Amino acid sequence: MVPFGQWLPDQSDYQSPGATVAKNIIPRTASSYGPLGTLTAVSAVVPNRPQGAGAFRDNDGVVYNFCGDVNDLYQYSASGASWSEISSSTGAYTVAAEDTVEFVKYGETVICCNGHTDAIQNFVMGTDSTFSTLAAAAPKAKHLAVIGNFVMAGNTSDAGDGAVGNRIWWCAIDNPTSWPTIATAAAAAVQSDRLDIPIGGHVQALTGAIGGLDGAVFCERAIHRLQYQGPPAPFGRYVVDQSRGTPAPNSVVNIGTNAFFLAEDGFYSFTGSGSIPVGAERVNKWFYNQLNDAHYHRIYGAADPINHLVFWLFPGSGSSGTPNRIVMYNWAVDRWSYAEVTAEMLFSDLTSGYTMEELDAITTSMETLPFSLDSRIWMLGKLALSAFDTDNKLARFTGTAMAATVETAETGGPGLTLVNGVRPYVDGGTVTVGLKHRLLPTGTETLVGPNAIDANGQANFTVNDRYHRAQVVVAAGGTWTHAQGVEYDAAPEGIV
């Protein structure tokens, strides 16, 4: 068998150690790819393009799902599969097109920011019915994180100094509603302070604990670690990576002790002590050749921890700003793939849970349920990778399998080879095989097929050429688990 290998679009097609194409599939194991479900809507629409979302569980186990658009904040109701506006007042906010509505949870309080126009908002789960201003003295902010016993804001704006892109600012210890005047005795007593970071440009993202650190600050051109050290200077700041940060604030994905992110030169994993390249010589050049780089703010990263995957949704070829590609990385097996999916945004979610009666909001027929009854989507509080589709509906990758394509590396030379057949190793679905071939490295490939599989599991060909590679397609809607590689029925035909 010739294994498909890991997807390596940055490598030469000829004798690449991996697959040249791995489309609409996930890197499932160290030796196989698996199906990616279609994006399937589960809710009614949000009035405008969602610009941020978050899901949280209170101490009683109740799940709260929120999102925000240009003017309002919304809460999801599983009973009606709908979004209810819960702003401080209808149309209360003005979110810039390049900004994101970010949500964090501290205790039973959900806190969100949306840029430099509106005050930071808060919602006490189990108590509040609408969001309200967190604290009049708190700054406005583009980014938030919970770091230790503090809520920290980054890239802030306040009445005294205006917008300060390189500033971080944190509340009183264990009290996110208290933001006393900086440099006063009151602030010192509760360890509230702020810090202007001199290296790296604007703050792009904040994360909590990574690799033993209390937190990290991702700037445009540097990454800093934060360590709580107590008064008089509550946080120590230390430059960890002075050569790279991120141009895409929403690309930073914190998974356990690591954070994955997009830098100016590709994808990295930040461990707390440094940045490790995960896309170099594999997908970085492909990604930047695809990216519409006028819309870095529309790159959204999120994790599927069940499958050990990080997804990055981004505006690629043919897009004027709306994301239409996903690149996926399996951190457990260090492999990549991609998909052609159009959506507005991507985020890590918690399922709300449904009763049998509440399923009527999805469909009135058991035959037309978008997922099987034993799917984790119907269960309460399960981790789920979610998106908002182009209709502004909450959606999940749990539909039938997308049409998948995977291609082997090109093999051959110096003589001709007659290929009589190709046997794909895919354990289900409707599979067809195409055979690409050419005589010279400078020649244009010719595709023969795709051909169906015969009763012996082989696609038959009569192709005599120097260089060959197999293109395996699994039709949409099939049931399969692993795609591993191909076996050639071939014989040498001599030197040309």
Query: How many strands appear in the DSSP assignment?
Result: 38
Global structural class: mainly beta
Judging from the principal axes of the Cα atoms, what is the shape? elongated
Strand content: over 45%
Percent helix = under 10%
CA-to-CA gap between the ends?
Answer: 26 Å
| Tally of helical segments | 2
Radius of gyration from CA coordinates: 25 Å
- Mean of residue pLDDT? 93
Main β-sheet, in a few words?
A: 8 strands, antiparallel
Task: List segments where confidence is low: pLDDT < 50 over at least 5 consecutive residues.
Answer: 354-359, 373-380
Secondary structure blueprint with pairings:
Elements: E1 2-3, E2 21-23, E3 25-29, E4 32-35, E5 40-45, E6 52-57, E7 63-68, E8 73-77, E9 82-85, E10 102-106, E11 109-113, E12 121-124, E13 132-133, E14 140-147, E15 150-158, E16 162-170, H1 185-189, E17 193-196, E18 203-207, E19 215-219, E20 223-228, E21 235-241, E22 253-255, E23 258-263, E24 266-270, E25 275-277, H2 284-290, E26 300-304, E27 309-314, E28 325-330, E29 335-339, E30 345-352, E31 380-388, E32 393-396, E33 404-407, E34 411-426, E35 431-438, E36 446-452, E37 459-474, E38 483-495
Antiparallel strand pairs: 1-38, 2-33, 3-4, 5-32, 6-7, 7-8, 8-9, 10-11, 11-12, 12-13, 14-15, 15-16, 16-17, 18-19, 19-20, 20-21, 22-23, 23-24, 24-25, 26-27, 27-28, 28-29, 30-31, 31-32, 33-37, 34-37, 34-38, 35-36, 35-37
Can you tell me about this structure?
The protein has helices at 185-189, 284-290; strands at residues 2-3, 21-23, 25-29, 32-35, 40-45, 52-57, 63-68, 73-77, 82-85, 102-106, 109-113, 121-124, 132-133, 140-147, 150-158, 162-170, 193-196, 203-207, 215-219, 223-228, 235-241, 253-255, 258-263, 266-270, 275-277, 300-304, 309-314, 325-330, 335-339, 345-352, 380-388, 393-396, 404-407, 411-426, 431-438, 446-452, 459-474, 483-495. The strands form 9 sheets. Strands 1, 2, 33, 34, 35, 36, 37 and 38 form an 8-stranded antiparallel β-sheet that branches. The chain is elongated and about 85 Å long. 45% of the residues are buried. A hairpin with a 7-residue loop joins strand 18 and strand 19 (215-219). The chain has 2 helices and 38 strands.
